[in-house]
Amino acid sequence: MEALVAVIIGVLTACGVYLSLRRRSFPVVLGITLLSYAVNLFLFAMGRLTIGQPAVIDAAATGYTDPLPQALVLTAIVISFAMTAFVIMLALKARAELGDDRVDGNRST
Amino acid sequence: MMQHLVIAPVLLPLLAGIALLLLRPLPIGWRRVLSILAVLAQVGLALLLLARIADGSILTYALGDWPAPYGIVLVADRLAAGMLLITALLGLLALLHASRGTDLEGRHFHVLFQLQLFGLNGAFLTGDLFNLFVFFEILLLASYGLLLHGGGPERTRAGLHFVVINLAGSTLFLFAVGTLYGVLGTLNMADLARRMAQVGPAELGLVQAAGLLLFGVFALKAALVPLYLWLPAAYAGTSAPVAALFAVMTKVGVYSIVRLDTLIFGTQAGDSAHLLGDWLLPLALVTLALGMAGVVASTGLRQQTAYLVVASVGTLLTAAGLGTADGLAAGLYYLPHTTFAAGALFLLADGIARRRGELADRFAPDGSMSHPRLLGGLFFITAVLIAGLPPLSGFLAKFLILRAALPHPDLAWIMTVVLVTSLLAVIALARSGSVLFYRARVVNAPAGERLLPELAPATALLLLCLGLVLWAGPVHEYSLRTAQQLYHPQIYIDAVLGREVAP
To answer: Cα–Cα distance between B62 and B85 in angstroms, integer?
Structure first.
C-alpha cells in the first residue's frame, strides 16, 4: 500500500508541476489543484498508513493511528479549496481584462 | 488579564476586521476612525509587550491551555515583539495615507487591511510550524485582496503571478512540514529544535531536505534570488498604501529565515546545525547585486522602490548570513530603517506620480510638478536614508553591518558588493531625483489641495527613521540583546517547553 500511495503522490506532483508551468491560465490552475491534492495525500501519509485502528483513545484498542495529520490535512484542504476558488476567479478576471488567457497577458497589443 | 497580552495583538485586528465587515452600512468616516483606532491600539499593545519582555523573559501563551508541545503556543520574545511594533507603526501610517481616498477605490479595504495585520502579527507570534503556515495563508489571502484592490489590467496581471507563485510556495511549505512531522513527530518549533539533535544518520538527509525546502519557501516570501521576480511588478502595480504595508511582507520571510536558522537549525541542532549558513550569505549578496541592478535599470519611481525592497532584503540577509550575534544585531537595526524608508518612498511616489499627470511616475523629463521644493526635499531625505549616506540611519546600519563583517573570511566580497551597490543606489536615486524635479515644469498647485495631510504619513515615516538615528544607542542595544537571545536557542526552548522537559 505504501508503494501505491507513494506512486500516486509522485504522479500527481509530476502532473501538477508540468501543468503549472504551462502558458495558459486554465492548465496552471489545474496544475496548482493537482499539486494541492498531492500534498494533502502526502500530509495524510505522514502519520504512517494504518488500517482499522482508532484515532482517539479506546480501551480495547491494540494500537492507534496518528490523529494529528488528519487534523492538519483537513486544515490544508480547506485552505487549498479557498485558494483554488480565488485563483479561478482571478484567472477569469484576467481573461476578461487582459483579453487573453495567457498567464503573462497579451503583450503584443 | 495580563497573561492574555500575548494573544491580544492577534485577536485585536481579527475582531476589528470582523466588526468592520459587519459595520459596512456605516459612513466611511466612522469606519476609517474605527480602523485607525484599532491599529493605534495595536501600537499600544506592541509597546506594552515590548516593555514586558524588555528584561529578557520570553512570554508564552498556550492556546486552550493545552501544554506545549501538544497544543499550539504563541511565543513573544524580543524579535517577535520588535517585529510587532514595526508592523503596527507602518500599518498605522499606511492606513492614514489610505484614508485619504485609496480605500474608496474598491470594497472592504479596511477589512482586508485588518486581516492582513492579523496574519502578520500571528506569523510573528506563533511557535508552531503548521500554525505559521496557517497565518501565512491568512496574510497572503488578505494581501491578494489588497494587491488587487482598485482593479486595472496591470494589477490583475501582476496579481495572477503573485497568487500562483505563492500557491506553489504554500504547497512546498506543506511538503516540508509533512516531512518534518513524519520524521520528528512534532511541529512545535521549540520541540523541533530539541529533537533535531537526536536525528539519526538514516534520517538526517530527510530532515535537511525538509529544512532546505522550508528555506526555499521563506526565500520566496522574502524575495531572495532567484525567487524575487514576482515582486517588482506586484509592488509597483498596486496602490501606494498597500505597497507601503507590503514593505513589511518580505520581512516576514526574513523573520522566518532567521527563526529557522537560529532556532530549528541553530547551535543545538547537532549534525544539522547551521544548515543554512552556506547558502544564506552568497544568495543574499547576489540578491543585493541583482536588486540594485534593477534599481539602476528601472523606468519608474515605483518600480525603482520595489527593486530597492529586493536590495534591502539582500542587505538584511547579508547581515544575518554573517552568522554572528554582531551581524544579526546590525541586521535587526537595519530592519526597521529599511521598512520605514521603503514605506515612505512608496507613499511619496504616490504624491509625485499624482502631480505629473499622464507621465505618472515614469522617468521622463518635462513632467509638471507643483511644490517641487517640498516634495523634492522629502525625496532627497528619503534617498539619503535608503542609499545609506551619513548622517542618517541608513549609514549607521550599513556601517554596523560592515563592522560586523570585519572578522568574516569573505570580507572582501561583502565589502565590495555592499559598497558598490550603495554607490549604484546613490547614482540611481540622484538620476531619478534630477529627472523628476530639476527637469520638471513648475506649475501652480490646483486650488483646494491640502498638502499637509497628504504628506504627513510619509513625513512621519521619515521622522521614525530620524528617531532611529537619535536613539541609535538604545535601539542597537535592543537589537544586540535580541541577537544574543536568538543565538542561545536553549532559552527559547526552555521557555516554551519548561525546564523539566528539556534534556
So the answer is: 22
pLDDT digits (tens, 9 = 90+) for B111-132: 999 999 999 999 999 999 999 9
pLDDT at B370: 82
Residue to test with chain B: of A21, A22, A68, A100, most B Cβ within 10 A: A68
A94, A25 Cβ separation under 8 angstroms: yes
Report chain B residues whose CB lies below 8 A from the CB of A14.
Answer: none
- B415 near B402, Cβ under 8 Å? yes
Interface size, chain A vs chain B, as Cβ–Cβ contacts under 8 Å:
86
Longest dimension (CA), chain A: 70
Q: What is the mean pLDDT of residues B21-43?
A: 92
Cis peptide before B226 (omega within 30 of 0): yes
Q: What is the pLDDT of residues B365-414, one digit of tens each?
A: 777 888 888 889 999 999 999 998 888 899 999 999 999 999 999 899 99
Q: Above 50 in pLDDT, residue B501?
A: no
Between the two ends of chain A, the Cα-to-Cα distance in Å is 53
**From residue B219, how far is each of B34, B256, B487 by CA, in Å?**
35, 9, 21
What confidence score (pLDDT) does residue B198 get? 85
Three-class SS of B283-318: HHHHHHHHHHHHHHHCCEHHHHHHHHHHHHHHHHHH
Asked if the structure places residue B174 within a domain, the reply is no
Q: Which of B166, B174, B177, B207 to mutate: most A Cβ within 10 Å?
A: B174
Given the DSSP bridges, would you call strands B441-442 and B368-369 parallel, antiparallel or unpaired?
parallel
Amino acid sitting at position B471: W
In a domain, B207, yes or no: no
Residue type at B35? S
Residues of A in contact with B168 (CB under 8 A): 20, 32, 35
Q: Is B462 within the bounds of a domain? A: yes
Backbone Cα Rg of chain A: 19
Examine the predicted complex and report whether its ipTM is higher than 0.85.
Answer: yes
Q: Please indicate, yes or no, if residue B379 is contained in any of the structural domains.
A: yes
Residue A107's pLDDT is 56
Cβ proximity of B393 and B351 under 8 Å: no
What is the count of structural domains for chain B?
1
List chain B residues with CB under 8 Å of A20.
Answer: 164, 168
State the pairing for strand pair B73-76/B59-62. Answer: antiparallel
Residue A106 confidence (pLDDT) = 55
Size (chain A), residues: 109
Of B134, B171, B177, which has the smallest distance from its Cβ to A35's Cβ?
B171
Residue A109: pLDDT above 50? no
Write out chain B residues lying below 8 Å of A104, CB-based.
157
Q: Find the mean pLDDT for residues B160-183.
A: 92
- In which domain, by residue range, is B292 found? 276-470
Confidence category of residue B499, pLDDT binned at 50, 70, 90: low
Higher pLDDT, B273 or B85: B85
